[in-house]
Design brief:
There is one protein chain. By secondary structure, this protein is mostly helical. It has a single domain, classed as Up-down Bundle (Growth Hormone, Chain: A). The chain is about 80% helix and about 0% strand. The chain has helices spanning about 20-35, 40-45, 50-80, 80-100, 105-115, 120-130, 135-145, 145-165, 170-190, 200-205, 210, 215-245, 250-255, 260-280, 280-305, 310-315, 315-335, 340-365, 375-404. The chain is globular and about 55 Å long. The relative contact order is 0.16.
């Protein structure tokens, strides 16, 4: 579908409206972080320790990564629409399991099952690439993934408030309600965008080496993975820093926690507005550099004894800004390496990004403890964002060598 598609809202025979895709990406992001201000309270509720409950982030991301590897080829074979519908239905069942889990072990099991909502993010991006060419797809992905900024920007604040008034389960009831709305919206609005493959599912999986042997795919995947790694480390460590270092309540933590999302919203807007004009490589480089610069400044404050609540969370907006510029463009690059494998590329690229994020989230939780302060988390975030700069510079250098 190289030409602009003919989209009719709430018509399941036409491609999905952008608002439907924004809702899907927003739900996927919200499921990741709405309950984070509640982690200390959930630790007490289940009579366990913080590191066990913090695994609700790491295991979710790990399963999410594995599922993304499977989702891409399955959707290339059977289509985007049925895979999203089944995924959202299973997400609703898993959410009910989280709400009524009697102990931490069962909660973590159902939390892993919730990761099936990965279909919403992976296939909303793949649907965009189905409908638009590379540079225009980068712009559209930038707009679509604004849902990943707008919703989580208010999600933790709402989640913290819900926790204080109704308890932590209210966060998951909210996810259930929004998941049901998204399922109804997909059913009524999302027509199929993929050209169904004539290959068997095994043949679809056998095409992974075509992507894995592409240096260009790896360059874009690593740029996105390292830069987003700073954000995932933040997800794993910021609740501890906010609660233990700055003594914030769940509601206060929810407000400050959304700082990266403010930057991410702006970064996505910049991607949507300027990716066609400047090209994806330049946008990725600017995004990676912005993220690394923000972490270098924040780390400098804490190493000199001048770090504060406001410097810690305020400079996280630059992490969000950098991610908002990097991820849509790097995603478009990954999906454009082999356009006939757009779903597979979206899944594999997302798996690399989320899988690395799971490891960094767990590592952030392990590095933080009594007396550590915020510095270990900031070092980790700076290192990963700096590697993102290296990754995109290698891609640009390689392209210049080939064209020269």
């Amino acid at each position: 579908m190289a030409d602009a598609p003919n989209i009719r809202f709430l018509d399941p025979s036409s491609p999905p409206h952008v608002s439907t895709l924004i809702m899907l990406s927003g739900l996927s992001a919200l499921a990741m972080n709405i309950f984070l201000p509640s982690l200390p309270g959930m630790t007490a509720y289940f009579e366990t320790n913080y590191r066990v409950m913090q695994l609700s982030v790491a295991v979710y991301l790990a399963v999410n990564a594995v599922l993304q590897i499977l989702i891409g080829p399955i959707s290339d074979k059977f289509g985007r629409r049925p895979v999203i519908i089944w995924g959202l239905a299973l997400f609703l069942l898993a959410t009910v399991g989280c709400i009524f889990a009697p102990n931490a072990e069962l909660f973590l099991f159902f939390r892993m099952c919730q990761a099936v909502v990965a279909v919403a993010l992976v296939l909303s991006r793949a649907a965009v690439r189905d409908m638009y060419p590379q540079d225009q797809a980068a712009s559209m992905i930038g707009y679509v993934t604004m849902g990943m900024a707008i919703v989580p920007m208010i999600g933790p604040a709402i989640g913290g408030a819900l926790d204080e008034v109704f308890g932590w389960q209210a966060n998951f009831w909210m996810l259930f309600g929004l998941g049901a709305i998204c399922l109804a919206l997909v059913w009524q609005d999302m027509g199929e965008t993929a050209l169904t493959s004539g290959k068997t599912l095994i043949e679809q999986f056998r095409e992974y080496p075509e992507l894995l042997t592409s240096p260009r795919f790896w360059g874009y995947a690593m740029a996105a993975g390292f830069t987003s790694g700073a954000f995932f480390a933040y997800l794993g460590g910021a609740p501890f820093v906010g609660t233990e270092v700055f003594n914030l309540s769940p509601a206060q933590l929810g407000v400050y926690f959304g700082a990266p999302a403010v930057g991410y919203l702006l970064g996505n807007f910049i991607s949507g507005r300027y990716s066609v004009r400047f090209g994806i490589n330049r946008m990725i480089q600017w995004g990676c550099t912005t993220c690394a610069t923000g972490m270098a400044i924040s780390l400098g404050f804490f190493l000199t004894g001048n770090g504060t609540l406001y410097s810690f969370f305020g400079l996280m907006t630059l992490v969000g800004l950098g991610n908002g510029m990097t991820i849509p463009n790097a995603t478009s690059g990954m999906l454009s390496v082999r356009p006939h494998l757009a779903g597979t590329a979206s899944g594999l690229g997302g798996a690399l990004m989320i899988g690395g994020g799971a490891a960094l989230s767990a590592l952030a939780g392990a590095l933080l403890g009594p007396g550590t302060g915020a510095t270990p988390l900031l070092w980790l975030m700076f290192a990963t964002s700096a590697l993102g700069v290296v990754a995109i510079r290698v891609v640009i250098w390689r392209e210049r060598q080939i064209m020269g």
